[in-house]
Each structure stands twice: as structure tokens, then as C-alpha cells.
Amino acid sequence: MIEDFRMAQEFGTMPAPKVEDFQFLRYRLEGEVARLTLDRPEHNLLNERMLNEIAAAINSLSDNKVKLIVIDSAASAFCGGIEIGEYTSRRVFQLVDAFQNAFLAMLNTAKPVLVVVNGPAFGGGAELAVLGDLVIATPKARFAQPEIRLGVFPPLSAVILPHILGTKLALELVLTGEAITAERAREIGLVNWLVPENQLEKTVNQIIAKVTAQSGPVLSMAKKAILGSVGMPLREGVKSSMKVFLNELAELEDSQEGLRALVEKRAPKWKNR
């Protein structure tokens, strides 16, 4: 183990790839939307390179005018999880580091993230979906955390699922490793919208239109207020949200424009600042 750690230190992790060099992630900007499409046939298994590309793509968006990040898949599966062939003692440190960086990028980004699941999302793929601020799925989607059957557990889901589902459901999914349908995922709160496959593109476009019609900075602050209060006692959560509202939101031109538009009975004209 010590020798493995030395090798990890010696070789280090891959440098952050440039957008133009992406191999497994289609990245494109469409106005105020960044589209990230997983594209590693045939099951979008996550390797170190792909994880680094996800992190690099999301981190590159911090200072631009993008209002929404959309993550979807070019394959029949959304994501089959970590590629087992990379999970070796020789590569485990680099892989875990890349895994953490990708998911921290999703957690830390101020941009809302919409995840589109039109196929199986297993293991790390399920965690990728769970980390979406908004999730839309079709009946083809299935969600599972099968790591327990391999003698490990999903570290991110072990922390995030209790916040979303409560302790009992989180324990059920993690301890049994069984897959659940898209219908049950919708019922328990893992999925926001469940739509037929032939309506998926239309519904995604509708959601994009609804989100991007809002002020970018206000979207970020609303997300910050919601996620920043998770796990806090009610009173502390209210204080945290009000702090964002009074100290940050009030300074925005868009916040003032929204109030003016309401008084003047017109649509607001956002400046995104």
C-alpha cells in the first residue's frame, strides 16, 4: 500500500484537459446553456480521463454568462458507473482523485445543473444523476447503487441520499444494491420529471426555457440559499437564506429591475448583474 501511494505521488493525476482535447465528453455552448453529453460507447463507463473532462467542463463555466448546465448521454445507457478495469491498486489514488474532482465540480458550481436520464444510471452514474439540481427521466431509466455487492459502498450517495430521501430509503438503496425503476425514482424524489421518451426533447427544451428566462445571478443565489441550508436546523437555515437575500441579492441590478417591472406591469429585462 505504501508503495502504491508512492507511485500515485510520483505519477500524479492527469492534468485538466482542454475543451478542444475532450475524448469522451461532447461540450457545446448554446447561448445561455452549456450542454455536456457523455459519449464513451457503449455504457459511458467512467475512467480517469472522462472524469477529468467532466470536471474541466464544469469548472470552465464559472465566470461566463451560462445560466444552466445540461448533462445527458449519447449512449443507450446514461452511465454504467466506474470502469472496473481502472479500479486497481496501481491506479486507485488517481481514479479516486478524478472522481472526487468531477463530483465536487458539480456540487460547487453556482450554475443550476439539469441531468437528463434516458437509460440505466448505475454506481457512479447514479451518483452523477443524484447530484443534478434538476433531473428528468424516461421510463427507460433505472437507478442503482450496486457497489455493496462488490465489497465497497458509494461514498457520495452515502452522504447525499439521506438528505434527498431520508435515512431509511438511503439505507435501502445502498445496503441492497437493487435497481429501482424510473417510476419509483420519481415517487421517492430522485427524479423531478418522468416523461415518455418521445416527449423527452420537448420537455427538456421547456425546462431550459423556464430556467434561462430568469436572471443568472439570481438563479445562482437561489441555489446557494437552498443548498446552503441543507442539514441546518430550521432557524439556522432561515438565517442563512436571509443572509444571502439581504447581503447579496439586494445589491443586484436584476433584483431591483424585477421589482420595477412588477410595479410597472411589464416583463423584466435582465442584465444578469
Task: Give a concise summary.
The chain has 273 residues and is an alpha/beta fold. The chain contains eleven helices and nine strands.
How large is the count of helical segments? Answer: 11
Shape designation: globular
- What is the ordering of alpha helices and beta strands? HEEHEHEEHEEHHEHEHHHH
Can you give the helix content as a percent range? 40-55%
Within CATH, the superfamily of the largest domain carries the name 2-enoyl-CoA Hydratase, Chain A, domain 1
Q: What oligomeric arrangement do these chains adopt? A: single chain
Keywords:
alpha/beta; globular; disordered N terminus; about 270 residues; six-stranded mixed β-sheet
Please, could you describe this protein's structure?
By secondary structure, this protein is of the alpha/beta class. It folds into two domains: 2-212, Alpha-Beta Complex (2-enoyl-CoA Hydratase, Chain A, domain 1), CATH 3.90.226; 216-263. 46% of the residues lie in helices and 14% in strands. It has helices at residues 2-11, 48-59, 92-108, 124-130, 155-165, 167-176, 182-188, 200-212, 216-228, 234-247, 253-263; strands spanning 25-30, 33-38, 68-73, 113-117, 120-122, 134-137, 142-144, 180-181, 193-194. Helix 2 (48-59) runs parallel beside helix 3, helix 5 (155-165) runs antiparallel to helix 6 (167-176) and helix 9 (216-228) packs antiparallel against helix 10. Residues 1-11 have low confidence and may be disordered.
